[in-house]
Design brief:
By secondary structure, the chain is of the alpha+beta class. It is built from nine helices and eleven strands. Strands 1, 2, 3, 4 and 5 form a five-stranded antiparallel sheet that branches. About 15% of the residues have low confidence.
């Protein structure tokens, strides 16, 4: 069986930026939406499916120009936002198989071939996604768990002497000299990499004991947060059709000052969303080491095995 015939509607020098695949019936109900290049999105139908795309100039979106533009962060951000905006509209209309960013074909006939060649798996994926939404749950480690990397401890106050003169804590009579390696220095027991231990008395020994306690508290807090994150994800997965645990985002990307211990994605039946929300709220109470954040709904990016055009 050959692909359904398609008469190209885009002018010469124009390509097709694919946003996603939807059932043909959904495409008919799609509200007007602006895609890339400030033009309305278009649709190619075939094999009971529809490919939603933007007509884009190849002198900007062709293979070589596109490769250069993808290295331009400003261009990439604008384009990615426009692409996601279209995919988000599709996801709110019905099931959608989102296309990978920067999936560009030379004309509409190539899209018809794609719909024909991948009809079986695209149809199965759309059926699996129907009636579901992707929701995210992020878990941030609350203050009071792991302390800052520097431990927050204040080292003993010292004054720097002249050449050959040891540093001295100006603490008055009876205060031991803090001179690393010197005869009067407090005894230090190397208790393992990165874990200072100390015996004796005085400001230096007290500081090392505080530091050791803080490192232990930090390790305990990290273990508690990791355990809570695993427990939360396992329970939420039981309320979802599918679940994925992504790598936690760096604070520079998340915009949060506290470290992320959980970055989960869950494909939730629409009819079970209220129950899923209630479970997230209950888990937040049961796991005080984490601040849970529910985000969504999102297009089902996390649950596409093979994106169209890839």
């Amino acid at each position: 069986m050959r692909p359904d015939p398609v008469v190209p509607t885009t002018p010469a020098g124009t390509g097709t930026w694919l946003h996603g695949i939807v059932p043909a019936s959904v495409a008919g109900a799609l509200a007007p939406v602006t895609g890339l290049a400030d033009t309305p999105v278009r649709v190619v139908r075939g094999s009971g499916l529809a490919a939603v795309f933007s007509a884009v100039p190849l002198d900007e979106y062709g293979e070589q120009p596109l490769r250069r533009n993808l290295e331009n962060l400003g261009w990439l951000e604008r384009t990615a936002r426009a692409h996601h905006r279209v995919v988000d509209v599709l996801a709110r209309t019905g099931p959608v198989v989102p296309a990978r960013l920067a999936t560009v074909h030379t004309d509409e006939r190539r899209l018809a071939v794609l719909l024909h060649d991948r009809r079986a798996d695209l149809t199965a994926t759309l059926a699996r996604l129907a009636g579901h939404q992707e929701w995210g749950v992020k878990g941030y480690v609350l203050p009071g768990g792991p302390p800052p990397a520097d431990g927050g401890a204040t080292p003993p106050r010292t004054a720097v002497g002249g050449a050959g003169k040891p540093a001295v804590d100006a603490g008055g009579a009876g205060t031991p000299t803090v001179d690393p390696g010197g005869a009067a220095a407090p005894a230090v027991d190397a208790g393992g990499p990165g874990t200072p231990t100390a015996s004796g008395t005085g400001a230096g020994a007290a500081y090392l004991r505080r530091r050791r306690a803080q490192l232990r508290a930090r390790e305990t807090g990290q273990q508690a947060a990791a355990h809570s994150a695993a427990a939360v994800h396992t329970e939420l997965a039981g309320y979802a059709a599918q679940a994925r645990r992504h790598t936690p985002q760096d604070s520079r990307l998340s915009g949060e000052p506290h470290p992320m211990a959980l970055n989960g994605a869950y494909l939730v039946p629409v009819e079970g969303l209220a129950g899923f929300r209630a479970v997230v709220a209950a888990l937040a109470t049961r796991h005080p080491a984490l601040r849970l954040e529910l985000t969504g709904p999102w297009p089902p990016y996390s649950f596409i095995v093979e994106q169209p055009g890839s």
